[in-house]
Each structure stands twice: as C-alpha cells, then as structure tokens.
What does this fold into?
Amino acid sequence: MALSPRQLSAPHLKEAATTLSLAGPATLAMLVLIFIPSLLVAVFSFTDYQFGARSFHWVGLDNYVTLFTDRTGRRAVTNTLLYVAVVMPLSMIFSLVVALGVQSVSTWSPRLATMLRTAYFMPVAATLVAMATVFQMLLHPSLGLINQLIGLVGIPGQSWLSDRGLVLYTLAAIGIWETIGYNMVLFLAGLTAIPSQLYDAAEIDGANNWWDRFWTVTWPMLGPTTLFVLVVTATRSFRVFETVATLTQGGPAYASDTLVYAMYREGFVYFKAGYSSAITVVFFVAVLILTLTQVRIVEKKVHYR
Amino acid sequence: MIAARYLSRAVSLGLLLLGAAIILLPFFWMISLSLKPADEIFQDSIQLLPSHFEWNNYVVAFTKMPLWRFLINGIIVCCGILILQILIAVPCAYALTQRDFRGKAIVMGMVLAGLLVPYHVTAIPLFLGLSQLRLLDSYAALILPFIASVFGIFLFRQFFATIPKDLIDAARVDGLSEMSIVWRIAFPLAWPAATAFAVFSVVAHWNDLFWPLIAVSSPELATPPRGILFFRDVEAGSSFGPLMAATAIVTAPLVLVFLMAQRAFIQGLTMTGLKG
It folds into this structure.
C-alpha cells in the first residue's frame, strides 16, 4: 500500500505514532499470546513432537485417529460429553427453581431473599481446588460425612471417587454445586426483566394459578436467558479440570478422564506435545461451536414468542 | 385462602433453606474440620462440631508449609496480571473508540476473535516459548501469558464508547496528550468497568490451577490452589486439620470480598458471562 505524501507529513506521522503507542502493545500481545500460539497448536497436532525432542515427524491425522479410536482417548471424549450432558440440564433446572423461589420470597421478605442469594452464590466465590479437598473429606468412603448421613436412612456407603461407575457422576454433582449460584443470578436478572403487566394480562385471560402463569408468561419470556444459561454452562463444563486434577487425576482406570485433563496429562506429564495439541484442537472446536451459538443468542436475543 | 398462601410460602422457603444448607455444607464442614482435634476428624459417629476449638491447626498450617508464601505469591500474580492487563487494554480500548486509524477494524476483529479462545488452547506453545526464553518456573511464567486481556479491551471499549466526543475534544484543546486523556479522563470515567474487570480477573487467577500446574514446579512459586495440593500430597493423610485450616485461609479472601461487596462482585462475574 503506497502512502500519499500527505500521509507522510509530520502531523500525520505523529498521529500514527500516537495510535501505535496506544493500540500497539495490545495488538502485539494479542498476536504473540493468543493468535500465533493458536495456529501453532493446530500445526503441532499434525506432528509427533515431544517436549525436549530435537526433531519431529509429520504424522498427518494420526493423533486425531488415536484420540477417537484409542480406548483412553475415546474415554476422555465420551466422559466429557457425559459430564456436560449431566451438569448442563440439572444445573439449569435447579438454578431456575431456586431463582423462582428466591424471587417469590423477595415479594414478602427482600432481606431473606438476599440472604438466600448470597448462600447459593458462595461456591462461585470460593476457590474450587480448596473446596475439592473438602469434598474429598466429605466423600471419604468409610468415615466421610456423606456416607455417614446416608447411612442414617439405611443407604449403604459408596466409594464416590474410586468406583468406576460412580466417579464421573460424583464430579458432575460437584460441578452442579459449583454452577447453580451463577446460573441463578442470570435467571434472577431474566425474571426481573419480565414486565408485571404481562402477568396481569395473563390473569385476565384466565391463567389464575401459578402453574398457568409460569407456562404462559414466565417460561416463554425467559427463553433468551434460558438459552444463554444453557450455553454458558455447557462451555464451562467442557473445561472441567480443577476437580479432576484434585480428586481423581482421571482415575480410576480413566473412568473420570476428561479432555482438558487428558490434554494436561499427555502434554505436561508424558510430554507428548503433538498428541496433546490434537486434544487441544478438538476441545477448542467444541468450545468454539458453543461460544458462537452463545454470541448469536446474545446478538439476536432470540425471539420472544 | 390466606392460610393456603402462608402454607405455600412456608413450603417453598423450607425447600430453599434445605437447598442452601446443602450448598453451604462443604463450607461448614471445612470450618468445623479445621477446628477439630486430630482424633475427632475421622470418626465412626457423626459429630458436627468440634468438642473444643483446636486453633493449633491454623498455627500448624502456617508453620508446616509456607502458606504465607502461597498467599503472597497469589497476591503478586493476581496484581501483576491485573495491572499489566489494564495498562495494555485501556489505551487500546480508547484508541478503538475515540480515534480513527488504519487497521482499526482488524484490531477490533482480533479482539472479538480472541474472545473465542479459551486460555487452555495456547498452553502448549506458550510453555515451549517460555522454556526457550528460560522463563519457566518464575513469576514471569505465571503472569505474562495473561497480560493480553481481550475481554478487558472489550469491556473498556463499551464504556469508552459512551464518553461524549466533546469532552475528549475539550481536553485535546487544553493541550492534554492522548496518553494523559486516557489515564486522567477516560479511565476514571470507566471506574465501574474497572471494578467489574478487577473482580473477574482476580477471581479467575487466584483460583486457577491449570496454568500454575504447568508453568511452575518449585513450591516456593506455588499459587494458593497449587500450594494446597503440595500440602495435601506431602502430608498424605496425616494432618487433615491443618489442611482444612489452609483451605479455609485460601478461600477466605475472595469469600470475604464477596460478602462485603456482593453487588460489585456478582456484577463482575456475570457481566463477564461471555468469557468465563
């Protein structure tokens, strides 16, 4: 691009230098820390590069084939999907119920409603790794409080974190515990935005009980919020790492292995940078699809029916 | 009719309180265990409260492991990241809203595209780069990867867009340089954005385990979550009371800030729903 003499004149150069000093550092940092690394990950994923090795070979799609055919690789993919499939709907339902409850309490006791909101939001403010070590104590198979409590009602104690069939659901339960408060706040914001005239109108039209009003007004009006919550929860659950790293390290026998944990283990414990990059790319594509859906929702605000 | 209304209130309040009790149970148990003498921590029978408060657990937590060190590391890393993020993001956000320049659309496009990239994605190349620069296992390794906050640029840009052009022009006429307009006029006006962003950034990096696990190996550089794991693995099963005391101390700062400034805290985390 040729610059005209006018653009090369002193004031213009000064203007350009000012812009560069303002936007330059950020642009450079974005390139070096986000965009170039993202491209490199994609390139690495087609190699057998190992950290510390002097050379590497191009292996085409081998790493991806391994991820989707190898038993441990497939475990990480299916476990992550199962984890998301459990956490996403349950967290959404619980948080919607809590939000509706808190909102109805706020009509007769705002202070009580604030206290409830605080209680439910606490896990969001807490350090997850620290809370996970507490869960480890709570879930201890012989002497943990949870098994002692369910023993009171005659349910036999479970090995929550070492039973292959159970461990992923235990982690999912912690995931739900952790996300309810966040989603509740989003739902509360959605609920307050519903104009009260709509409820009056619904009542005139014959929706006289709570259940009718919920289905004719609340639920349709909450549509955009609900979709937003769904996608946010899915994106967050896809990233599950802290609880896995703290409580199970993917075990027993890869029963709780997830994508981000597998990425960490293969790359930074076994130093298989190429394979780990392929896991990263698959993870990235999944999150990308979810985030783009989310952006569409935010931009279009969906449609009120 | 009135009786029915009170009944339904009582039932829904009861259920909400039950749910809140379940949510708060780990917090209660953490505090209770952190104050229990060693022989009461694992027992056959349920004992909710300690027979007496064993404050010594907290003393042991600070003496057996460098817990102070972990906390100070957490503060250094969070402050380092936040300050650099703001220093880099704010002028860029200003340029994107109050100035015209070639490539503006490209920079804006980079910001939006950057919002789509979770930080896990860049871990492998950044690890390689830091090892080439011999920076692994240092504060720089913990801080540098996060200084380009696209979310920060995005958030500040939204606030700067609402500043009237006249105000900026008046400052220019008064002879202020663009840099001093950024820091003396625009930034103070975007205080709500700065608060929200600070909450978002500090919560994310105080609690992060993924990157500290990769970037540092010496316990002296451990951030609080990493330090908790060091403590747990070294003490393997012997001192649960001090471990719980350590978790309580690590969790306390953010929880206390949350309890004192709930509105700002919740806003900081939910405004940022786009990037989590």
Notes: Residues 66-300 of chain A form a domain with the MetI-like fold fold (CATH 1.10.3720.10). Chain A touches chain B through 93 residues (CB under 8 Å).
